[in-house]
Structures are given as C-alpha cells and as structure tokens.
Specification:
alpha/beta, globular, two-stranded parallel sheet, Beta Polymerase, domain 2
Length: 151
C-alpha cells in the first residue's frame, strides 16, 4: 500500500529548499503560496528523497470565500504520496500558475478545472473549455453558479 506523506514530513523537506513557500501544514497535506507552486512542484518531483514524479489529480474546491487547488502526487519509486494545496482568494479571476511545464499530463486536468470551476491557469498552452462548449456562460461547479438553461 502506498504510504501517505504527512504534512509535517513534506513541510520539513520544503522548508529546507523553499522556506517562504509554505503557508500551512495539516495532518496529510501542505498548503503553499500559489505564486510559488511551480517552484515547489518542480522541487517535489526532482528531489531524490521524495521523487513525487506522478501527478494523479488536479482539482479545485469552492469554499465561497476562496478556492482551493488540490494536487495529488505519487512516487512510484518510493511508494509514497502527498497532497499539496493552494488557496486562491477572489471570485472574479482566480488564477494559479499552470503545471504543464512540470507535468505535461496536467494539461487536460487544468482545462477541466477551468471549465467547471473557473480557475485560470497562467501560461497554460491551450486554455479553453474541454467539457462545455465555447460561449457557455459560467462555471457549473461553482457554488454561486446559477443555472442558465431555460426549461
């Protein structure tokens, strides 16, 4: 079974390389500053002790007063996993850096988050809807989404 790295284990390692990137630690996750996400993820992927080379999932949660990006990472080599989160404040244009440069497989997952939650990914190579049609109004998984379909 894959071992989940505790937030304290991850934070200890991150603070050695990126001391200003960590905002908070939890029992099984670590929150990082959104603007430091690319640096942190590049480090987690390449660090010989962690080798979190596989991006399992990218998703977002709407907490009304903020969005939370959630990244699930796995090291197939070390047989452990980690959860990294970033909080985004503001509902008009929540934006986080794209991780396509770190994990090319993030492209479709980031497009899905954009389409359904409205979180933008700066420097994304193909930032457009993936599930809904262009011209669709709104992002249906947001808590403030009003159904625009007339029955």
């Amino acid at each position: 079974m894959t071992r989940v790295l505790g937030g304290d284990e991850l934070v200890q390692r991150l603070r050695q390389e990126h001391p200003d990137a960590v905002e908070e630690e939890g029992e099984s996750a670590v929150w990082v500053k959104p603007e430091r996400l690319v640096d942190v993820m590049t480090f987690l992927k390449g660090d010989p002790e962690l080798r979190l080379t596989y991006l399992n999932a990218v998703t977002a949660v709407d907490y009304i007063d903020h969005f939370e990006m959630v990244y699930h990472l796995t090291s197939l080599e070390k047989n452990h996993g980690a959860v990294v989160k970033a909080r985004l404040y503001g509902r008009d244009e929540p934006t986080v850096p794209s991780l396509v440069g770190v994990w090319p497989g993030a492209e479709l997952q980031e497009r899905e988050v954009w389409d359904l939650m409205g979180v933008r990914f700066s420097d994304h190579p193909n930032h457009k809807r993936i599930m809904l049609w262009e011209g669709f109004q709104g992002h249906p998984l947001r808590k403030d989404f009003e159904d625009v379909v007339q029955y």
